[in-house]
Amino acid sequence: MSVALQVGIIVGYLVVALAVGLLAYRVTERTAEDYYLASRSFGTVVLLFTVFATLLSAFTFFGGPDNAYSLGPEWILVMGLMDGLIFALLWYLIGYKQWLIGRRGGYVTLGELLDDRFDARGLRGLVALISLFWLFPYVMLQQVGAGGAIAGLTEGVVPFWAGATLITAFMIVYVVLAGMRGIAWTDTLQGLFMLSMVWLALGWVLTAVDGGIGTINAGIQAQAPELFALGGGAYTPQFMLTFAVSIALGVTMFPQINQRFFAADSEAVLKRTFALWPVLVVLLFVPAFLLGTWAVGLGVTADVAAGQSVLPVVLGAYTPGWFAALVVAGAIAAMMSSSDSMLLSGASYFTRDLYRPFVDEDIDERRENRLGRLGVVVFAVGALLASIWVEGGGLGAATVGSLLVQIGDLAFGGFAQLAGPVVLALYWRGTTRTGMYAGILISQSLYLAFNVLPTVDLGLLQLFATTYFGWGISLYLIALGTIGTLVASVVTDPAPGARPDVVEVSR
Amino acid sequence: MSASLRWAVTFTALLGLAIPWFLWGSAQVVWGLPIWLWWHIAWLGLAALLFHRFATQNWGLWVTGGSEAETQNGPETGTQNGSRPGRGDRR
After folding, report:
1. How far is the alpha carbon of A213 from chain B, nearest alpha carbon, in Å?
2. Which tens digits make up the pLDDT trace of A288-345?
3. Buried b vs exposed e over A253-266: b needs ≥16 C-beta within 10 Å?
4. CB proximity under 8 Å: B 45-74 to A
5. ipTM score of the complex?
6. Which terminus of chain A has a lower count of CB atoms within 10 Å, N or C?
7. A220-261 confidence digits (pLDDT tens)
8. Domains of chain A: which residue ranges?
9. What pTM does this model have?
10. Burial class, A296, CB count within 10 angstroms (exposed 0-12 / middle 13-18 / buried 19+)
């Protein structure tokens, strides 16, 4: 298997993605609503796959199978509950409501909606700042993953920096040109590609192993007889539920997902998407994570703790090199489809919620259009340079690098802290501006403190631990932030310009 | 039973048993996979069917104004009040 062929497969894939993006550019209008939301025009297939592909990052191919390999296949249950059910219901409760309100009021970001509801420009800026704080390292993690995947596949012939730069350059071109429509069309391609690749990989391994699943299961019985037992080891009910609830809530507040809540074409599209969603989730996670678990029975070993991923090792052992390259292209597709959306939504939060309200209120549509695209380039290049610097081990890079990885890992929980106050803002007339500030600031600052500060032993209890009684700190703080918004709203008066009618919708 | 209560119970049950707690500790394998994994796959299939039923019968429940959106509308007859008074950002 020559490196040239492997690189050819990946570049070929990138060119196809670019071509789809360029196709979308031909129908893109020069307005912010079209650039950021494709004029709220998504049909069922595109909406389903753009949310799906955006939601699934490299984790589906690397982190998830690694967990299923080292901890056991119960991870499928965590993801099914989290993404298939909790997120689907939140999409209805938060997303459908945002869609109704957004269509009426012409909102492009959550911050704009909150600003109108509470007459609070500061709140809008705060939500944007918090979102960008969690988003930036998360974009970097994706670039580091993509660069590493290419370097790993080509055994270093294409160095990390070149791989990461290549991926970023392709993304910038189609995101700058075609905006949300380009991303959604490439997402659809990428989603279908990922889905096909995991099923093909599963089928390939099953046929390549002599005796098929019987041999694999016998291997698991011999190697780790407890692997198939539900629960045990790391899997406690508290562990599983903390992940499922906290991440599902966090996903709804990630800018690239939250912005998609606004983008459906019609109610019929939302209804069909709602019903199809759990099926799509099962179709992806079951085969992807089973491959990780099966590695145990196949006697394939990977040093997951040291950062090695099990899926490429399994594929390397049982499939030809070109197929493994295709699956790595699938993983790169997963990373790209997440990061391109993050770039666009990050840029939109910057231009719509920070630049426009605080720097230049009277910016015209032409200039805003240019600024939005410039924002994408700055965001992408900034994240790329930071990734290369951290990965290259520059001055102080190790410290900053580990901090950024930590922030990236904490991002889901960080975004989840926004969910409680936002749900109250959408559903409870009594919510006040002060209540929003209180809930958001309390939960964000405590969440950071508990995760970053060292644990302090106070005798009876520990301060700044990350779990209490087995439940993650993020769940406690989601509750605390929500209560904070409730209590502060009860004891304060609404701002004079507050408009509860903004979030009221009736048939 | 009102639609609101009926769906609240249904969704709670869907969430509560997506992980088959009653099979905790079971390692029984059926058709090559742990039995609890089959349960999960079937459960999410059931969820899709129930979500479809909800979407066709009671879509809008809890979200749009009235507390009981007991409509038997087809999928296309949603809200069409898409008037857009101005942009979201008036500042």
Report:
1. 6
2. 999 999 999 998 888 877 767 888 889 889 998 888 888 888 788 778 888 889 999 9
3. bbbbbbbbbbbbbb
4. 45, 47-49, 51-52, 54-56, 59-60, 62-66, 69, 71
5. 0.92
6. N
7. 999 888 899 999 888 999 999 998 999 999 999 999 999 999
8. 3-402
9. 0.91
10. buried
